[in-house]
Amino acid sequence: MAVLITGTAGFIGFHLAKNLLENGQDVIGLDNINDYYSVKLKEDRTQILSQYAKFKFYKTDLCDLPGLVTIFKENDIQKVVNLAAQAGVRYSLTNPFAYQKSNLEGFINIIETSKNFKVENFLYASSSSVYGNNTKLPFSTTDHVDHPISLYAATKKANELIAHTYSHLFGLPTSGFRFFTVYGPYGRPDMALFIFTRKILAGEIIDVYNFGDMKRDFTYVDDICAGLMSSLDKPFAYEIFNLGNHRTENLMDFIGIIEKTLQLKAKVNLLPIQPGDVPETFADIDHTTLKLGYLPTTRIETGIKNFIDWYKEYYKNDLP
């Protein structure tokens, strides 16, 4: 019996698949390896996973419904973790149809196929972005999330509503996970830690929005994977979970840790907040801890060091 993970060439999907494979689990990977960011990075992640005997990979798109059905027919898939999506708040401002295809059409295809093949558990990625400009902190899954401020967030809220409908109508167990600013080795090049590290090493100026008055609940990727793995064997009729670190870090302090780790000073360009951004995120994880035993353990200093060590090794031929 296999776990199907969509988005295995992506950041979280790669780490989750690797963790499951190291535990002896059969994993079916699916990814279209698009060019939203470095194709080489995605291919390198896939190459690492392909070294495991229990990994089987399909290069395909969630919008290819016949192809998706074929994957289910060819494999005994009992559990699905849908992490494939068009990511990024800022990208959604100028490329809305990428989100329509991947996050809406693609999501309906994978949940409909999962229902038809009677999978035991359906997990999927939501986002902390659904909280929008909520001012009550920390963000709780009981909060109203009816006012997203980006199309990306709106599609993630739509995923939660679609999952609820499938759970209600068809009895499909679904669990959605609102990720809070995930970081770590093999991370996404469009995320702050990656951008700041690259530019500081190159002696370039980094753009810091809202004049540095930003706070984020940074969550290390291994903690995210622990939360997902603990949910795989716990099907719920319908649940939403926060996966965060349950603490919020000031952005300027975050940059300070990067500077200290690199032993370099950042050149900072302070700018107004960008459309779609929120000034602070902070996860209430009490519900997740109660239901899943989720307890993040990675300190921000440790996580940043792990990322920078990986970055220097992976890009060693490109460093100044």
How does this structure look, described?
With 320 residues, the chain is of the alpha/beta class. The chain has a single domain (2-183, 220-246, 280-297), classed as Rossmann fold, CATH 3.40.50. The protein contains 10 helices and 13 strands. It has a 7-stranded parallel β-sheet with strand order 3-2-1-4-5-6-11, with helices on both faces. A two-stranded parallel ribbon has the order 7-10. The longest helix has 21 residues, at 96-116. The protein is globular and about 55 Å long. The termini are far apart.
Keywords:
about 20% strand, Rossmann fold, two-stranded parallel sheet, seven-stranded parallel β-sheet, about 40% helix, about 325 residues, alpha/beta
Radius of gyration, CA atoms, in whole angstroms: 19 Å
Terminal CA distance: 47 Å
Q: N-to-C SSE series? A: EHEHEHEHEHEEHEEEHEEHEHH
Largest sheet: 7 strands, parallel
Total individual domains:
1
**What strand line-up does the widest sheet have?**
3-2-1-4-5-6-11
- Total strands: the figure is 13
The assigned structural class equals alpha/beta
pLDDT < 50 stretches: none
Mean pLDDT: 96
Q: Count helical runs.
A: 10
CATH architectural type: 3-Layer(aba) Sandwich
% residues in beta strands = 15-25%
Please name the CATH topology: Rossmann fold
The percent of residues in helical segments reads 40-55%
CATH class descriptor: Alpha Beta
Shape: globular
CATH homologous superfamily heading: NAD(P)-binding Rossmann-like Domain
